[in-house]
């Protein structure tokens, strides 16, 4: 698995699953099947069945701590558009880097446009967060859901 694939998996965990009711990472019981005695109660009060299936507070706290740890950008993280320390006076290298940086800006603009397009499925509405995972620019250290770190700084 590549570094970018790992980043896509790790950095999105807390923003997408940090609210346990939104996307529980663990359920303590299955949804009752028609032949089971709990099925009638499930039909009468599906919300209570769901709530009673959620992880305990202790379980949820442990999972959130793990998600926060793998989702957090470090203070000394270097991001792709910021990787200019390798540049020297070589004109060809500088031009390639500038083309690469311009392409990252285009990608970020495309993501922004898609996030604002209400006709695209799963892009807007109540409880649907805009896509920010691996947007080239970073909002800084911490759980931002943004930025593409340089693979050697992970």
The low-pLDDT segments are: none
Structural class: mainly alpha
Based on CA atoms alone, the radius of gyration comes out at 21 Å
Q: State the helicity in percent bands.
A: 40-55%
| Assembly type | single chain
Major sheet attributes = none
Number of beta strands: 0
What's the N-to-C terminus distance?
Answer: 14 Å
Identify the overall geometry. elongated
Q: Report the mean per-residue pLDDT as an integer.
A: 77
General description of the model:
This protein is an all-alpha fold. The protein is 44% helix and 0% strand. It has six helices and no strands. It has helices spanning 3-10, 13-17, 39-44, 46-53, 57-71, 91-116. It is elongated. The model has no long low-confidence stretch (mean pLDDT 77). One of its GO terms (molecular function) is metal ion binding. It comes from Anisodus tanguticus. This is Lipoxygenase domain-containing protein.
What are the defining features of this structure?
single chain; 154 residues; mainly alpha; 6 helices; 44% helix; LipOase; Lipoxygenase domain-containing protein; LipOase_C_sf; metal-binding
């Amino acid at each position: 698995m590549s570094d970018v694939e790992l980043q896509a998996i790790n950095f999105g965990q807390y923003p997408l699953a940090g609210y346990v009711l939104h996307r529980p990472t663990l359920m303590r019981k299955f949804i009752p099947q028609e032949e089971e005695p709990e099925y009638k109660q499930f039909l009468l009060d599906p919300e209570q069945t769901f709530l009673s299936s959620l992880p305990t507070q202790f379980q949820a706290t442990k999972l959130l701590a793990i998600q926060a740890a793998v989702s957090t950008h470090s203070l000394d993280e270097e991001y792709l558009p910021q990787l200019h320390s390798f540049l020297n006076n070589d004109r060809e290298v500088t031009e390639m880097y500038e083309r690469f940086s311009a392409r990252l800006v285009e990608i970020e603009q495309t993501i922004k446009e898609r996030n604002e397009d209400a006709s695209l499925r799963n892009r807007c509405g109540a409880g649907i967060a805009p896509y920010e995972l691996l947007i080239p620019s970073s909002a800084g250290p911490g759980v931002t859901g943004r930025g593409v770190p340089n693979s050697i700084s992970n």
